[in-house]
Amino acid sequence: MKQLRVDKRGCYGVIDGSFQELPVGHEFAAEKVPPAFSGRVTVISEVDEITLEVATPDSTTAEQAEQAEQAEQAEQADAPSKSKKAK
Question: What's residue 22's pLDDT?
Fold first, then answer.
């Protein structure tokens, strides 16, 4: 795995789920330098392995989200009954 940095325009890829031109200075990891990026990127370093961390919400955050969802569902349940009375 190699850590690459974009040095010149003309490199395209996916950033945050959106396909777009990679900005000059953008750094990313790849198995090897893509042929289309030859001359446009610099190998910064060799990376043995990339470790990704998974974010898990703590219990208070989960409880708050659940309470907000329950309140929203209660509002939606009240909305149809109000519109029937208005007709």
Answer: 95
Q: How many domains does the chain have?
A: 1
Could you report the per-residue pLDDT of 13-23, keeping only the tens digit for each? 998 999 999 99
**Does residue 26 lie in a domain region?**
yes
Q: Which residues of 23-61 are buried (b: 16+ CB within 10 A; e: fewer)?
A: eeeeebeeeeeeeebeebbeeeeeeeeeeeeeeeeeeee
Query: Model pTM?
Result: 0.52
The range of the structural domain enclosing residue 20 comes to 2-46
Residue 33 within a domain: yes
Inside any domain, residue 25: yes
CA distance 55 to 18: 22
